[in-house]
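Dissemination and training. As part of the outreach component of the grant, students in the summer workshop were shown how a complex can be specified as a set of sequence lines and then modelled as a single object. The example used during the hands-on session is reproduced here so that future cohorts can follow it. Participants entered these lines:
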Amino acid sequence: MTTLNVQHADETDEMRSWSEIRSDFPTLDQTIQGEPLTYLDNAASSQMPEPVIERIDRYQRHEHSNVHRGVHTLSQTATDAYEGAREAVAEFIGAPTPKQCIFTRGATEAANLVAQSWGRANLESGDEILLTRMEHHSNIVPWQQIADETGAEIRVLPVTDDGELRLDQLEEMLTDRTKILGVVHVSNALGTINPVEEIVERAHARDVPVLVDGCQATPHLSVDVDAMDADFYAFSGHKMNGPTGIGVLYGKEAWLEEMPPYQGGGEMIRSVTFEETTYADLPNKFEAGTPAIMPAIGLGAAVEYLTSIGMDRIAEREAELLDYATELLEAEEGVRIFGRADDKASVLSFDLEDIHPHDIGTIVDTHGVAIRAGHHCTQPLMDRLEIPATARASFSYYNTREDADRLVEAIEHVREIF
Ligand code: C6P
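and obtained this result:
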């Protein structure tokens, strides 16, 4: 297994300061439109620290080769690094074994894998797929597609005005016909942290398996898929200081064993004749073709980097930044904040009078402030809130109070212009 030689938080005598940690991120040290970059679009993609960049660089310069196939040393080195990354990821999310972590292109492909493979094998006409109103499109559209094919129906658990799930309605929504529940762990549009342990427990009491979309949770919270008892858990590397093009589907072994392959090709077979193909063991059964080797190794380095800081320390830091930024924004005339859940991760969605969020995003960019504006791939949630879009500032542990100050100054400039 590859290691970064980074000490874990509980092993260090002295914790690194947040400013030292911030200096690990070269992208943050630049000017945009003549202003220092204030990067507040971490929910879309977070930045990569030096140890991740260095690990990728080392792979590219010295280890690049195909995995699992070669008898030569370089291929063995690449295979060890790739499988080492899987071990690191498994440990990071508390998966009982690495083979339960399937590398995918991202959370979107992970959800499609479950919908296409599990769904095709387990859904039939009249069955119900229970989703929540705050799902990202990637946990809606794949289910619509398989529902169309199988005749299953989608039902939707509502949310409150504050952006919390209506868990009081969960019991009645879980019917004898419910075959699977899909729920987002942390909402990308509102920041709501859903009580997934409780939701999984209640679904399991009705024999309903649960797919948790953990895309916005793994960068911010300590996640333990085993303790949570999730049947499936999906996330993306680029939101947690890793590269794009890589993500993970964790699954319970029993499900993954019985599910048919998602795609066919090399790597995922045991033997092929024109009459019959038999499939490889987990995880290869679900990884057809040459995988995203470099991004996977980068993700392995990213989870080791996060672990070196400590997820609890990260969560505490981000909660403090969120409180600070929320207070500042609340004091701004005309700003309306969406997402008032008691338990929130570091996402601040807002609008400003009748100024379109895209205009807000464009103008604050001239101050070097990068935020996202739009529906955040959660159109059903936007419809529920009766808004077309929001402006969204999303914080990471490497952000500072000064970043929040700059955001507010830029917003004040927006108001002045309109
Ligand atoms: N959200 C944002 O909010 P991919 O594109 O596969 O890496 O991730 C999809 C995805 C799934 N679930 C949640 C909760 C997400 O937030 C996302 C990605 C980005 O800015 C892009 S819409």
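Confidence is low (pLDDT under 50) at residues 1-11. Students were then asked to discuss how this feature might be tested experimentally.
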